[in-house]
Write the structure tokens for this entry.
Amino acid sequence: MITGRFFAAGADRRVAITIFILLAVAIIVPLLNLAVSSTSAFYVPSYVVALTGKYLCYALLALALDLVWGYCGILSLGHGAFFALGGYAMGMYLMRQIGSRGVYGNPLLPDFMVFLNYRELPWFWYGFDHFWFAAIMVLAVPGLLAFVFGWFAFRSRVTGVYLSIITQAMTYALLLAFFRNDMGFGGNNGLTDFKDILGFNVQADATRSALFAASAVTLALAVFVTWAIVGSKYGKLLMAVRDAESRTRFLGWRAENVKLFAFTVSAVMAGIAGALYVPQVGIINPGEFEPSNSIEVVVWAAVGGRGTIVGPIIGALLVNAGKSWFTGVLPAFWLFALGGLFVAVTLFLPKGIVGMWDSWRGNARALRAASIAEEAGTDPDVPPAKIVRSAARTPGDWSASGPEPQPAE
Amino acid sequence: MSKSNTILYLDGVSVSFDGFRAINNLSLVLDKGEMRAIIGPNGAGKTTMMDIVTGKTRPDEGEVFFDGQVDLTKHDEADIAMMGIGRKFQKPTVFESHTIEENLMLALKGPRSIFPALFHRRSATEARQIDHILGIIRLGDKRDELAANLSHGQKQWLEIGMLLAQDPKLLLVDEPVAGMTDAETEETARLLKDIARDHSVIVVEHDMHFVRELGVKVTCLHEGSVLSEGSLDFLSADERVVEVYLGR
């Protein structure tokens, strides 16, 4: 019991350390980029700032997915859609900031609209010349879509693989819709050629550093919010719905509302990730709705350890760093490597990197306790490894050990 | 039949799945404060009856009333649970990745919406209630252990404890002693008799020793309707019950 509590404290400490590291990185990396001479060994090149900034956005997306998948068992294969919608909302703001500096020099219409013979700005572009409006849309559009989608899906008690399939269908439908030129979002080419964000040049090193810092701080905040949600009574309920949904219903809880809240919060987080991503990569196009993108997010979370807060972040950073390296060295084999990685993680690391680390540490501690007890000549009071690590953080769909979510009846 | 002073009133209830009549013109009345045991062979419709009462299954026809006036066919599981009907599943179903205490916490009577749960702080009253229930189900020394680590019998008790935390008026208890040792079975009988002092209870059970231990009126179901009703001795003497269930 004491080890259990210690480990609970350990998990909290890990979250605190993660937040601390993210905040420190938000200050140090921009400093090393801007204030250190480019000949110094400590200099961080601008392309590294942009690349890691992008990874932080992916990490936020993976964390968002983990909130619903790891803690509530909703395997969403469409989280890329919420990410892309947040990205489009930001992209629309950035398009409006171009003003008359476009190729066609039209002060009213973005380039692609001139090219496609638009006479006037479509109504849904109104307001996007204000940052505050775009910021609200970044939250509202993915949040609203998730709310409406979740309302119908959870109310109709669509669960498991069927839910995964309809989330996949959702992102695919959006992909096809955004590919159409008459949707008014730039069709195939999407939105690009951005100039300014809040009056600063998006290409400038200082702006890139600021966007990097914003991504790191936002991720830190999201870690805190997720930690607070998961630790609350609602968080316990979320995991209870994951493990025994009908039990929660017969206790009087509305499982559909429990899921809906988490799904909506998660979609908003994904939208924010997309909005931070777009100015850093300089483009948003319908490819972001690609179902395979959403599946990649699942791989990140699985590699790092779903049902943990730190796991998806580590997973997203590692897999993407691996991707950057791999696509540089053996570009043709990246997809095979990704597929192989997923198979390997499923087989050998069912709890992901963080989960594996925890059970390894738990076993080591139990062994040490046993040997100490033996030396002292007392009865070794060795807790089984599975108590040591709170299994609240171990959704056991795949794992052979640990509590299995059990269907009631 | 008058509905007043009944806690549960089923009249002419039928339900079929793919043409199979799981419940066939079933009528059953439970008085307030009564404990009833239900026996019957597999497939007699015992679990389906509980599904109907708790809102999981809608009957094709018939009346289901709770507390004399509430029509249960018009409500869903969460509503019915909030009205005061608690249910223990055949297979013990607890939240395995939570501790015993957290399991009870989630079951404890109180608001059931998202935002209160998000900002919930445990009050002294709640802590007292949990202590009280832990005492009743004898799991006080395991309060911080994960429910996954409990034995089968202890999980059954925890689930009964969760029902108590809900503070229902009517408890539906499906096979509470399945897989228990004799000592645990006796213990459970005592626990249920305790609970029956201030609750109405329906117990479905196959274990005849246990049913005898309870010493209450027994209903025998067969092919979706009531075959016979009365004391266990009366049923044991009933030719039809012996024929379909008890065996010669």
